[in-house]
């Protein structure tokens, strides 16, 4: 086991750790706050309604969530590298000092573990890789976010004097250096910092095109947001969802239920209702988003056929027989919003099977995961 004294590079310093840590802290805060927005947007019955405007709001917050999370990866690696010798520091003598040291290292252990867990599960989710069956990504990612942010606040509070001293001094200042950290490397501290910012920038550019259209061509790791039939990517195909036969069956009906009243509509019945056009994005929780021009029926017009009350809570069911997106809940403010459609068209053409034909839900400022495709039933609940 190496000791703290074995690390002699001048780069592993409070000067570097505080600067990288400050940027990492900002990225973490953006990630945390936009994550809270996403959690709120996905609550089936939020105590405070999630707003339906601006229509592009979730597109921006979730794009920022994934972009800031990705920027954290290189930043966290450099930060951990720069402070690694500190973790090998000998435990001081004396019960009180020893207890304090153990408490501090324990809280840092929690912070590091929670941060790595968040970045790893977030990346896995953005890459649509779900290695655990029955593992609720959203619940776990949300719970551990609080652990991470709590440990981070504690860490910053404990380190505030060092952080202030390090940020207040020149980056090459040696006052805060460990006694053995005297070896000059080929790379200067400024060079290391510049490389770190560049690595974070490259990671962002490689993925941000998923939500920022003009970055599309440089985003080798991002989903091409303009790719896919009718200019919008496909998340789950009709084939994969197992709905190909049911969705193309002439016997298809949309069932609209309110208490004792039920109305059955064919696709032709929907097409005979007043048609509207809205430009609304699909903003996937995985970070990609794309704007579409949707044609179809106002959801409210369909709900009026069964005399749904104002602000109805609507349960939307898909033809898909299993899977977490089979059934979604639409809060009253979304059901009543004039822009919320049952889409029959995209980009002026009939909706393709993969985009959710015969009809799909599209509402403003709503996470993509809740924009249910292949809708077969709407049930008004109180
Ligand atoms: N029935 C059903 N609806 C669904 C899904 C699904 O898997 N099944 N995927 C959702 C997700 S995660 C997203 S991002 C959008 C994607 O819509 P698109 O494939 O038309 O782009 O559809 C949503 N609606
Ligand atoms: Mo999604």
Please characterize this protein's 3D structure.
It is a single chain. The chain has helices at residues 14-41, 57-83, 95-126, 137-168, 189-208, 238-241, 244-248, 267-272, 299-304, 332-336; strands at 254-258, 261-265, 275-283, 289-298, 313-318, 327-330, 341-346, 349-350, 360-362, 375-381. It has 382 residues and is α+β, with helices and mostly antiparallel strands. The protein has two domains: 4-215, Up-down Bundle (Fumarate Reductase Cytochrome B subunit); 231-381, Alpha-Beta Complex (Sulfite Oxidase, Chain A, domain 2), CATH 3.90.420.10. The strands form two sheets. Strands 2-1-10-5-6 form a five-stranded mixed beta sheet. Strands 3, 4, 7, 8 and 9 form a five-stranded antiparallel beta sheet that branches. β5 (313-318) and β6 (327-330) form a beta hairpin. α2 (57-83) crosses α3. The longest helix is centred in the N-terminal third of the chain and has 32 residues, at 95-126. The N and C termini lie far apart (64 Å). The mean pLDDT is 93. Bound molecules: ligand MTE and molybdenum atom (MO). The ligand Nc1nc2c(c(=O)[nH]1)N[C@H]1C(S)=C(S)[C@@H](COP(=O)(O)O)O[C@H]1N2 binds next to loops.
């Amino acid at each position: 086991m190496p000791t703290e004294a074995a690390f002699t590079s001048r780069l592993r310093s409070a000067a570097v750790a505080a600067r990288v840590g400050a940027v990492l802290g900002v990225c973490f805060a953006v990630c945390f706050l936009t994550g809270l927005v996403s959690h709120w947007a996905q609550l089936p019955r939020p105590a405070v309604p999630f707003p339906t405007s601006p229509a592009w709001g979730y597109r921006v917050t979730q794009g920022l969530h994934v972009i800031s999370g990705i920027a954290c990866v290189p930043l966290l690696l450099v930060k951990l590298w720069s402070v690694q010798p500190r973790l090998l520091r000998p435990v001081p003598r004396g019960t009180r000092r020893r207890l304090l040291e153990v408490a501090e290292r324990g809280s840092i252990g929690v912070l590091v573990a929670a941060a790595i867990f968040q970045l790893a599960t977030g990346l896995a989710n953005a890459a649509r890789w779900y290695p655990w069956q029955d593992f609720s990504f959203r619940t776990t990612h949300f719970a551990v976010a609080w652990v991470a942010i709590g440990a981070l606040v504690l860490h910053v509070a404990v380190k505030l004097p060092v952080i202030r001293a390090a940020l207040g001094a020149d980056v090459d200042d040696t006052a805060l250096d460990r006694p053995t950290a005297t070896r000059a490397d080929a790379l200067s501290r400024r060079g290391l910092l510049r490389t770190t910012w560049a690595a974070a920038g490259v990671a962002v550019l490689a993925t941000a095109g998923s939500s920022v259209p003009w970055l599309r061509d440089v985003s080798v790791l991002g989903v091409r947001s303009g790719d896919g039939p009718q200019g919008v990517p496909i998340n789950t195909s009709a084939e994969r969802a197992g709905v190909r036969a049911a969705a193309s069956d002439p016997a298809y009906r949309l069932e609209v239920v309110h208490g004792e009243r039920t109305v059955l509509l064919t696709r032709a019945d929907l097409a005979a209702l007043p048609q509207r056009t809205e430009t609304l994005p699909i903003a996937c929780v995985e970070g990609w988003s794309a704007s579409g021009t949707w044609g179809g029926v106002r959801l409210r017009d369909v709900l009026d056929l069964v005399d749904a009350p104002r602000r109805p809570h609507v349960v939307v069911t898909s033809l898909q027989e299993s899977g977490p997106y089979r059934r979604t809940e639409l809060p009253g403010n979304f059901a009543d919003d004039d822009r919320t459609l049952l889409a029959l068209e995209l980009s002026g053409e009939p909706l393709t099977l993969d985009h959710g034909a015969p009809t799909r839900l599209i509402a403003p400022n709503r996470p993509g995961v809740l924009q249910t495709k292949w809708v077969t039933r709407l049930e008004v609940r109180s």
